[in-house]
Amino acid sequence: MQTVDFFTPVADDPETYGRVAAINSLNDVYAMGGTPISALSIVCFPQKGDWDILGAILAGGQAAMNEAGVVVVGGHSVDDKEMKFGYAVTGVIDPKKIVTNAGAQVGDVLILTKPIGTGAINTAVKRGKAKPETEAAAIKAMTTSAAAASKVMQKVGANACTDVTGFGLLGHGYEMAKGSKVTLNIDSKRVPLLPDVLELIADGMLTRGDKNNRVYVGETVRIADSVSGVMQSALFDPQTAGGLLISLPREAAEAFLAEMPDSHLIGMVSEFGGRLIEVS
To answer: What is the pTM of this model?
Structure first.
């Protein structure tokens, strides 16, 4: 199995940026229940830029790859005014044990392994409006690997999984529901949020992803009037190295939560009822 992902800086510290980029790339493999084994780095960096910064980015990424047991076998660089960094990752998986985003079953429950809100917080950081502790919470989330959750997911028997990244929780939930031909029922009150996310969104700390992700899902998502506008934006907020959204039987979910207590049960799967997602 192979995947590729790279993006512009999401942290002021270059080493942290490199680490987040690595974890974000690896999570695509973990979301399918695979084991990453090797990677190629992708670097876009200005030729007249500070090479010490580039070195720190690469070091951060290398450290995360080392921790995951992944060998960085090389890479490619391009002279670019706008910095970008990431990896193409190769992994292995038993063909009989692949967890796709199209296997959710009626009666399953939905688990989210990380709080959401990194898009809004990263925007606030760039504008100098995020508290240090809020930024630290976002970095902690972005630098937490999905490896442990992936192993437990496989052990207890998940039916479907996707990592939550650029399309936000509802965008990636839409893909799961569409592929599985079911309706996801999400309780917004159960969705975990990073600190200050709703306040920052209310202050206008949104990315283009808010509008783009709403357009992406179109009329397939119905959100109850009781869900506030800022909470709706949080649900559409594009994530970096976000958590896993997992669909699994209720008994399996109990076993999963026993081993991954920081995860949250946020909804359930029902027969397709005209909308792919119902948010209450």
So the answer is: 0.96
CA distance readout (Å), 71 to 25, 68, 190: 14, 9, 38
DSSP-derived pairing of the beta strands 221-223 and 84-92: unpaired
Cβ burial of 250 (10 Å; 0-12, 13-18, 19+) is exposed
Question: Are the folds of 2-96 and 99-279 the same?
Answer: no
Range 178-207 average pLDDT:
97
Torsion angle of alpha carbons 251, 220, 223, 209, nearest 10°?
100
pLDDT digits (tens, 9 = 90+) for 118-159: 999 999 999 999 999 999 999 999 999 999 999 999 999 999
Query: In DSSP terms, which residues pair with 79 in a beta bridge?
Result: 45
Contact yes or no for 88/44 (Cβ under 8 A) = no
Q: Domain spans of the chain?
A: 2-96, 99-279
Q: How far apart are CA 32 and CA 100, in angstroms?
A: 6
The CATH fold assigned to 2-96 is: 60s Ribosomal Protein L30; Chain: A; (3.30.1330)
Looking at domain 99-279, its CATH architecture is Alpha-Beta Complex (3.90)
Which pair of tokens denotes residue 54? 């580039």
Q: Which residue has the tokens 């990431």?
A: 86
pLDDT, one tens digit per residue, over 28-71 is: 999 999 999 999 999 999 999 999 999 999 999 999 999 999 99
Kindly list the distances between the CA atom of residue 74 and the CA atoms of 31, 41, 66, 87, in Å, as whole numbers in the listed order: 24, 6, 14, 10
Six token digits for residue 43: 């670097």
* Alpha carbon distance 123, 134 (integer Å): 12
Q: Are 145 and 23 in contact (CB under 8 A)?
A: yes
